[in-house]
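Entry 14. Structure prediction run on the chain below.
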Amino acid sequence: MVDDESRPEHTRADDDAQKRRADARDAEADVREAIADVRKANADMRELVGDARGADADSREVTADAREADADAREVSADERGAEADSRELTADARDADADAREVSADARGVNADTRELTADARDADADARDVSADARGVNADSRELTADARDADADARDVTADAREAAAEVRESAADARDAAGARKPLLDVRSPDAARKADDGQQNV
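Output returned:
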């Protein structure tokens, strides 16, 4: 039978074991939370990568639009040069044909109006091309920013993974301590304290 004076030692051992088990449960909860954080970080990273890919596609589309607008501007400039050549030819015809001078002059004024309209169109197309190029640069900047965010998210995911591994190591260590404590408790059940042994000896001598 275990003496009453040996009970505090068992109680302390039980308390230590319970504390270690509680610590192990807390550590396991921390590991589960860390794993959830890792999964969320991975999901965020995949979303950012998807956004970056979409931005790249938008950038390519805007670049194609810019090239098309530039081609349109060159075509309008060529039309303008052709109209100017026509204007010079009409002016020469007016000099040669005095009788038709007024009609030719009217035609020339019409051609000049067309020339101004084409020039305005060329300027508008050039302005549109510059706007599209600016938009393309903005999209490229957004793409670089999203790529940087994706890299940051990947770094955060690696940090969370490292924290999870560290927490798992602490769980294993706590579990080992709990097992060691549980194993160290068993011999205490058969060992009497020195005071109890002395009292037992005194009792035998008095009989």
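DSSP finds three helices and no strands in the chain.
Filed with the rest of this week's runs.
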